[in-house]
């Protein structure tokens, strides 16, 4: 039977002082941290955990901090998670022999990846109290891969711990959910995200707050927007797309533009990394960049290219999903404006897109009250279609056609 602990927004700006240092990188989540730092939890943790929460809530960050707390070399339970001992620092670096973190840059985990992880789980801890396996994006397991993992969770090796991360419990098969201890992370507050970006990343407070608001409190996306002007510009282009669509041809053009924007974002982030990986591989094979690759070594390069192609596909998928979230935020703003009866107070609404206030006020006056609700439904359906591998251009054309507003009756 699974157990769920819900978090609430942390309102104490000095929350980090109450918990060991490894938890300072998590925005809010006070109740979750309190649960995971209890002496009884650190002394005898459940053998399998499911950390769920919306993207940007910090579920992977919480999983790593929990792993650090469990292997920390401090004797006092209250001090575990110091962030300074060799165990804590090697977990942070991804090199601790007893903490394995599996993350995928592909659309799905392969069954071979999961089998390899399950085989490793049979080993006893090398240096720590526990052998810990963190699986990020556990919702990306196929049903076959999940069944491979299930047996290890049902009959865990001694002193082995599993931590699975997913957006919601419904994204993981019931057979897994029922055998895990579940923790639900909430979306952190605007203040928590802003404070984290300022204290951890040294960002300007005003820029950090603006980015946190535009990112809808998604910590990673807020950091990315605050640090990259080009990312901020692209996001602005995306959210402006529906505001001027009035015809079918404009809807098709908007779909083409959104596909191009997300592909460009994925290509920009991949170009330098791909080149570095190729150069590193060639050096390891004893080749210079301008040398012809001997036939017997070409399979190494081909495998790298296949991995990079899969990663780019995942990057495009993720960029499209973020665009859907940004568009949902736009229509949430329209909905908020329409439901404020006093027009003089509409400028005081806390919008996700405050820089578009005037355009949103005009747009809200020209569409029916049902339009933003219908738009939100269309965007959500598009997200589901994209996850089902519907070609992006087709899915987005259908969405933008649904976003063409109908003028209210006189």
TrEMBL record:
Keywords of the record: Nucleotidyltransferase, Transferase
Domain AAA+ ATPase: 45-188
Pfam families recorded: DNA_pol3_delta2
GO biological process, any: DNA-templated DNA replication
Enzyme Commission number(s): 2.7.7.7
GO terms, molecular function: 3'-5' exonuclease activity; DNA-directed DNA polymerase activity
NCBIfam families: holB, PRK07940.1
Protein name per the record: DNA polymerase III subunit delta
Natural source organism: Auritidibacter ignavus
